[in-house]
Amino acid sequence: MADDTFYKDLLDNLYDGIYFVDVNRKITYWNSSANRISGYSGEEMVGHFCFDNILNHVDQNGKCLCTDGCPLQQTIMDGTQQENLVFLRHKDGHRIPVKVRTSPIRNRDGEITGAVEVFSDHTEYQYTISRINQLEVEVHMDALTGLFNRAYLEKQLVASIKDFEYFEIPFGILFFDIDHFKKVNDTYGHATGDEVIKMLSHTLKHNLRDSDIVARWGGEEFIVLIKNVDKYILVSIAEKLRNLIEKSMIKLEDNYLSVTVSIGATMFCAGETDQSILSRADQALYNSKRTGRNKLTADFTD
To answer: Which of 220, 221, 239, 272 is catalytic?
Structure first.
Protein backbone atom coordinates (compact mmCIF):
# COMPACT_ATOMS: atom_id res chain seq x y z
CA MET A 1 0.00 0.00 0.00
CA ALA A 2 2.89 2.31 0.82
CA ASP A 3 4.28 1.68 -2.68
CA ASP A 4 0.90 2.56 -4.23
CA THR A 5 0.87 5.86 -2.32
CA PHE A 6 4.43 6.62 -3.41
CA TYR A 7 3.69 6.05 -7.09
CA LYS A 8 0.42 7.99 -6.90
CA ASP A 9 2.19 10.96 -5.31
CA LEU A 10 4.91 10.69 -7.96
CA LEU A 11 2.41 10.72 -10.84
CA ASP A 12 0.33 13.49 -9.28
CA ASN A 13 3.38 15.74 -9.11
CA LEU A 14 4.36 15.34 -12.73
CA TYR A 15 3.77 18.34 -14.98
CA ASP A 16 2.10 16.27 -17.72
CA GLY A 17 -1.45 15.01 -17.52
CA ILE A 18 -1.61 11.23 -17.19
CA TYR A 19 -4.45 8.75 -17.22
CA PHE A 20 -4.74 4.97 -17.45
CA VAL A 21 -7.40 2.92 -19.20
CA ASP A 22 -8.13 -0.80 -19.25
CA VAL A 23 -8.58 -2.83 -22.43
CA ASN A 24 -12.16 -1.59 -22.67
CA ARG A 25 -10.86 2.01 -22.52
CA LYS A 26 -12.39 2.62 -19.10
CA ILE A 27 -10.43 5.25 -17.19
CA THR A 28 -8.84 3.79 -14.05
CA TYR A 29 -6.53 6.63 -13.00
CA TRP A 30 -6.43 10.39 -13.55
CA ASN A 31 -3.62 12.51 -12.13
CA SER A 32 -3.64 16.06 -10.76
CA SER A 33 -2.05 17.61 -13.86
CA ALA A 34 -4.77 16.06 -16.02
CA ASN A 35 -7.20 17.93 -13.77
CA ARG A 36 -5.22 21.16 -14.13
CA ILE A 37 -4.99 20.98 -17.92
CA SER A 38 -8.54 19.78 -18.66
CA GLY A 39 -10.53 21.19 -15.74
CA TYR A 40 -11.95 17.72 -14.98
CA SER A 41 -11.18 16.07 -11.64
CA GLY A 42 -10.39 12.42 -11.06
CA GLU A 43 -13.80 11.96 -9.47
CA GLU A 44 -15.44 13.15 -12.71
CA MET A 45 -13.31 10.99 -15.00
CA VAL A 46 -12.41 7.69 -13.27
CA GLY A 47 -14.95 5.02 -14.16
CA HIS A 48 -15.92 6.66 -17.44
CA PHE A 49 -14.84 5.34 -20.81
CA CYS A 50 -12.66 7.56 -22.96
CA PHE A 51 -15.17 7.12 -25.79
CA ASP A 52 -17.81 8.74 -23.58
CA ASN A 53 -16.34 11.78 -25.31
CA ILE A 54 -16.07 13.99 -22.26
CA LEU A 55 -12.81 15.51 -23.51
CA ASN A 56 -14.09 15.47 -27.09
CA HIS A 57 -10.64 15.15 -28.67
CA VAL A 58 -10.56 16.46 -32.25
CA ASP A 59 -7.79 16.90 -34.77
CA GLN A 60 -7.00 20.18 -36.53
CA ASN A 61 -9.70 19.43 -39.12
CA GLY A 62 -12.38 18.96 -36.45
CA LYS A 63 -12.55 15.16 -36.75
CA CYS A 64 -13.76 13.54 -33.50
CA LEU A 65 -10.99 11.17 -32.41
CA CYS A 66 -12.74 9.68 -29.39
CA THR A 67 -15.06 7.74 -31.71
CA ASP A 68 -12.90 7.52 -34.84
CA GLY A 69 -9.11 7.36 -34.72
CA CYS A 70 -8.50 7.24 -30.95
CA PRO A 71 -4.74 6.89 -30.27
CA LEU A 72 -5.47 4.89 -27.11
CA GLN A 73 -7.58 2.41 -29.05
CA GLN A 74 -4.81 1.97 -31.62
CA THR A 75 -2.26 1.35 -28.88
CA ILE A 76 -4.48 -1.26 -27.20
CA MET A 77 -5.11 -2.99 -30.53
CA ASP A 78 -1.56 -3.32 -31.80
CA GLY A 79 0.71 -2.32 -28.91
CA THR A 80 2.27 0.58 -30.79
CA GLN A 81 3.12 3.88 -29.18
CA GLN A 82 1.24 6.82 -30.67
CA GLU A 83 2.05 10.53 -30.68
CA ASN A 84 -0.44 13.14 -31.90
CA LEU A 85 -1.34 16.79 -31.61
CA VAL A 86 -5.02 16.98 -30.68
CA PHE A 87 -7.39 19.57 -29.29
CA LEU A 88 -9.28 18.68 -26.12
CA ARG A 89 -12.36 20.46 -24.87
CA HIS A 90 -11.72 22.04 -21.49
CA LYS A 91 -14.45 21.75 -18.90
CA ASP A 92 -15.15 25.46 -19.44
CA GLY A 93 -15.80 24.79 -23.12
CA HIS A 94 -12.74 26.22 -24.87
CA ARG A 95 -10.26 24.19 -26.89
CA ILE A 96 -6.69 23.48 -25.77
CA PRO A 97 -3.97 22.05 -28.04
CA VAL A 98 -2.32 19.07 -26.32
CA LYS A 99 0.52 16.79 -27.33
CA VAL A 100 -0.72 13.25 -26.71
CA ARG A 101 1.53 10.20 -26.27
CA THR A 102 0.09 6.74 -25.66
CA SER A 103 1.82 3.50 -24.62
CA PRO A 104 0.51 0.00 -23.90
CA ILE A 105 0.34 -1.47 -20.38
CA ARG A 106 1.27 -5.17 -20.27
CA ASN A 107 1.09 -7.87 -17.59
CA ARG A 108 3.95 -10.21 -16.72
CA ASP A 109 3.03 -12.47 -19.62
CA GLY A 110 3.30 -9.59 -22.08
CA GLU A 111 -0.42 -9.35 -22.66
CA ILE A 112 -1.87 -5.88 -23.16
CA THR A 113 -4.11 -5.03 -20.21
CA GLY A 114 -4.65 -1.37 -20.95
CA ALA A 115 -2.85 1.78 -21.97
CA VAL A 116 -1.54 5.02 -20.56
CA GLU A 117 -1.96 8.45 -22.14
CA VAL A 118 0.39 11.28 -21.30
CA PHE A 119 -0.69 14.71 -22.50
CA SER A 120 0.83 18.16 -22.16
CA ASP A 121 -0.55 21.63 -22.78
CA HIS A 122 0.74 22.73 -26.17
CA THR A 123 -0.62 26.28 -26.01
CA GLU A 124 2.77 27.89 -25.45
CA TYR A 125 4.28 25.87 -28.29
CA GLN A 126 1.46 26.87 -30.64
CA TYR A 127 1.93 30.50 -29.63
CA THR A 128 5.67 30.22 -30.23
CA ILE A 129 5.17 28.74 -33.71
CA SER A 130 2.61 31.43 -34.50
CA ARG A 131 5.01 34.13 -33.29
CA ILE A 132 7.87 32.68 -35.32
CA ASN A 133 5.68 32.73 -38.43
CA GLN A 134 4.66 36.30 -37.65
CA LEU A 135 8.28 37.38 -37.20
CA GLU A 136 9.23 35.64 -40.43
CA VAL A 137 6.60 37.70 -42.21
CA GLU A 138 7.68 40.90 -40.46
CA VAL A 139 11.34 40.43 -41.35
CA HIS A 140 10.32 40.26 -45.01
CA MET A 141 8.02 43.30 -44.91
CA ASP A 142 8.74 46.95 -45.55
CA ALA A 143 7.53 48.89 -42.52
CA LEU A 144 6.30 51.98 -44.37
CA THR A 145 4.38 50.36 -47.23
CA GLY A 146 3.47 46.87 -46.03
CA LEU A 147 4.99 45.49 -49.22
CA PHE A 148 7.69 42.85 -49.30
CA ASN A 149 11.22 44.14 -48.88
CA ARG A 150 14.35 43.76 -50.94
CA ALA A 151 15.59 40.64 -49.13
CA TYR A 152 12.33 38.80 -49.85
CA LEU A 153 12.30 39.82 -53.50
CA GLU A 154 15.86 38.56 -53.92
CA LYS A 155 14.86 35.15 -52.50
CA GLN A 156 11.80 34.95 -54.73
CA LEU A 157 13.87 35.90 -57.75
CA VAL A 158 16.26 33.00 -57.12
CA ALA A 159 13.28 30.65 -56.63
CA SER A 160 11.72 31.88 -59.89
CA ILE A 161 14.93 31.13 -61.77
CA LYS A 162 14.84 27.56 -60.45
CA ASP A 163 11.20 27.25 -61.52
CA PHE A 164 12.24 28.44 -64.97
CA GLU A 165 15.10 25.93 -65.16
CA TYR A 166 13.12 22.93 -63.87
CA PHE A 167 9.58 23.62 -65.11
CA GLU A 168 10.11 26.24 -67.85
CA ILE A 169 7.85 28.75 -66.07
CA PRO A 170 8.56 32.13 -67.70
CA PHE A 171 8.70 35.33 -65.66
CA GLY A 172 9.53 38.97 -66.02
CA ILE A 173 10.30 41.88 -63.74
CA LEU A 174 9.28 45.53 -63.75
CA PHE A 175 11.61 48.06 -62.14
CA PHE A 176 9.86 51.29 -61.02
CA ASP A 177 11.32 54.60 -59.87
CA ILE A 178 9.31 57.69 -58.88
CA ASP A 179 10.18 60.63 -61.09
CA HIS A 180 11.61 63.77 -59.42
CA PHE A 181 11.05 62.29 -55.95
CA LYS A 182 13.77 64.45 -54.40
CA LYS A 183 11.83 67.51 -55.54
CA VAL A 184 8.71 66.17 -53.79
CA ASN A 185 10.62 65.81 -50.52
CA ASP A 186 12.32 69.20 -50.87
CA THR A 187 9.06 70.99 -51.73
CA TYR A 188 6.53 69.29 -49.48
CA GLY A 189 8.61 67.55 -46.80
CA HIS A 190 9.45 63.93 -46.07
CA ALA A 191 6.07 63.18 -44.48
CA THR A 192 4.40 63.99 -47.79
CA GLY A 193 7.05 61.97 -49.57
CA ASP A 194 6.13 58.99 -47.40
CA GLU A 195 2.47 59.44 -48.33
CA VAL A 196 3.41 59.42 -52.01
CA ILE A 197 5.34 56.18 -51.55
CA LYS A 198 2.38 54.60 -49.75
CA MET A 199 -0.02 55.77 -52.45
CA LEU A 200 2.13 54.20 -55.16
CA SER A 201 2.48 51.01 -53.11
CA HIS A 202 -1.29 50.67 -52.75
CA THR A 203 -1.79 51.25 -56.46
CA LEU A 204 0.68 48.51 -57.33
CA LYS A 205 -0.61 46.04 -54.75
CA HIS A 206 -4.29 46.41 -55.64
CA ASN A 207 -3.86 46.14 -59.40
CA LEU A 208 -1.84 42.94 -59.67
CA ARG A 209 -2.64 39.26 -59.21
CA ASP A 210 -2.21 37.61 -55.82
CA SER A 211 0.59 35.54 -57.32
CA ASP A 212 2.56 38.61 -58.41
CA ILE A 213 5.23 39.78 -55.98
CA VAL A 214 5.53 43.50 -55.27
CA ALA A 215 8.51 44.72 -53.27
CA ARG A 216 9.95 48.03 -52.20
CA TRP A 217 13.50 47.80 -53.48
CA GLY A 218 14.68 50.85 -51.57
CA GLY A 219 13.83 54.55 -51.27
CA GLU A 220 11.50 55.38 -54.14
CA GLU A 221 12.30 52.21 -56.14
CA PHE A 222 9.98 49.21 -56.50
CA ILE A 223 10.18 45.86 -58.28
CA VAL A 224 7.33 43.65 -59.43
CA LEU A 225 8.03 40.00 -60.24
CA ILE A 226 5.41 38.47 -62.54
CA LYS A 227 5.25 34.76 -63.46
CA ASN A 228 3.55 33.02 -66.37
CA VAL A 229 3.66 35.96 -68.75
CA ASP A 230 5.23 36.69 -72.11
CA LYS A 231 6.83 39.99 -73.10
CA TYR A 232 3.63 41.35 -74.61
CA ILE A 233 1.60 40.77 -71.45
CA LEU A 234 4.44 42.17 -69.34
CA VAL A 235 4.44 45.40 -71.36
CA SER A 236 0.64 45.61 -71.12
CA ILE A 237 0.78 45.25 -67.31
CA ALA A 238 3.55 47.83 -67.04
CA GLU A 239 1.67 50.39 -69.11
CA LYS A 240 -1.50 49.81 -67.11
CA LEU A 241 0.35 50.41 -63.85
CA ARG A 242 2.15 53.48 -65.22
CA ASN A 243 -1.16 55.04 -66.24
CA LEU A 244 -2.87 54.20 -62.95
CA ILE A 245 -0.02 55.73 -60.96
CA GLU A 246 -0.08 58.89 -63.08
CA LYS A 247 -3.83 59.23 -62.39
CA SER A 248 -3.46 58.65 -58.62
CA MET A 249 -2.96 61.51 -56.19
CA ILE A 250 -2.81 62.49 -52.55
CA LYS A 251 -4.67 65.41 -51.03
CA LEU A 252 -2.66 68.27 -49.61
CA GLU A 253 -4.09 71.18 -47.61
CA ASP A 254 -5.25 73.19 -50.61
CA ASN A 255 -4.57 71.01 -53.65
CA TYR A 256 -3.66 67.54 -54.89
CA LEU A 257 -0.27 66.00 -55.63
CA SER A 258 0.37 63.34 -58.25
CA VAL A 259 3.58 61.75 -59.48
CA THR A 260 4.77 59.71 -62.42
CA VAL A 261 7.11 56.72 -62.65
CA SER A 262 9.76 55.50 -65.02
CA ILE A 263 9.80 51.75 -65.64
CA GLY A 264 12.31 49.20 -66.89
CA ALA A 265 10.92 45.84 -68.04
CA THR A 266 12.61 42.58 -68.95
CA MET A 267 11.96 38.86 -69.25
CA PHE A 268 14.28 36.27 -67.79
CA CYS A 269 16.45 34.54 -70.38
CA ALA A 270 17.86 31.02 -70.16
CA GLY A 271 21.36 30.92 -68.75
CA GLU A 272 21.39 34.27 -66.99
CA THR A 273 21.53 35.01 -63.27
CA ASP A 274 19.48 36.97 -60.79
CA GLN A 275 22.04 39.77 -60.96
CA SER A 276 22.04 39.93 -64.76
CA ILE A 277 18.25 40.26 -65.05
CA LEU A 278 18.27 42.96 -62.36
CA SER A 279 21.07 44.76 -64.17
CA ARG A 280 19.15 44.71 -67.47
CA ALA A 281 15.97 45.95 -65.82
CA ASP A 282 17.93 48.69 -64.04
CA GLN A 283 19.53 49.79 -67.31
CA ALA A 284 16.12 49.87 -69.00
CA LEU A 285 14.83 52.00 -66.12
CA TYR A 286 17.77 54.38 -66.52
CA ASN A 287 16.98 54.70 -70.23
CA SER A 288 13.37 55.63 -69.39
CA LYS A 289 14.61 58.42 -67.13
CA ARG A 290 17.26 59.57 -69.59
CA THR A 291 14.78 59.84 -72.45
CA GLY A 292 12.03 61.80 -70.74
CA ARG A 293 10.59 59.94 -67.72
CA ASN A 294 7.00 58.77 -67.22
CA LYS A 295 7.60 56.01 -69.71
CA LEU A 296 8.45 52.33 -70.10
CA THR A 297 11.61 50.96 -71.65
CA ALA A 298 11.85 47.23 -72.28
CA ASP A 299 14.91 45.06 -72.74
CA PHE A 300 13.89 41.74 -74.25
CA THR A 301 17.37 40.44 -75.06
CA ASP A 302 17.08 36.85 -76.32
So the answer is: 220
